[in-house]
Amino acid sequence: MLKLFRIASLFEGFSYLIILCVSFSIISREYVFVIGMTHGVLFLGYFIFSLLASHKQGWSVVIWLLVLLAAVVPFAFIPVEIFVKKELLKNAHRT
């Protein structure tokens, strides 16, 4: 589950950066609908996978909320990526 959350986190983070590029007119506004819908679906996937990963890993509500907050802060997916990598390593050492 953690690997799926990691993938969802990366895709959601990059889609958020792309949508910000549209906001700053780096990318043409004619793609707003497609980019917006894609980002919306990826955000929902991020939310669901964060809930599932949080439950499976036994994260506290505070950690889950911080992970969820990272979805709305540009470039915050990078610290989440580091955190998830550490969690994966911790799980690998347990088995």
Task: Explain what this protein looks like in three dimensions.
The protein is an all-alpha fold and 95 residues long. Helices cover 79% and strands 0% of the residues. The protein has one domain (2-94). It is built from 4 helices and no strands. Helix 1 runs antiparallel to helix 2. The longest helix is centred in the middle third of the chain and has 26 residues, at 32-57. It starts with a helix and ends with a helix. The mean pLDDT is 93.
Q: Quick one: overall form?
A: elongated
Return the string of H and E elements: HHHH
Radius of gyration: 14 Å
N- to C-terminal separation? 16 Å
What is the strand tally? 0
- How many domain regions? 1
Largest sheet: none
Q: Detail the poorly predicted runs.
A: none
Key words describing this protein structure:
95 residues; 4 helices; single chain
Set out the fold topology.
Blueprint: H1 2-23, H2 32-57, H3 61-69, H4 77-94
Helix pairs in contact: 1-2, 1-4, 2-3
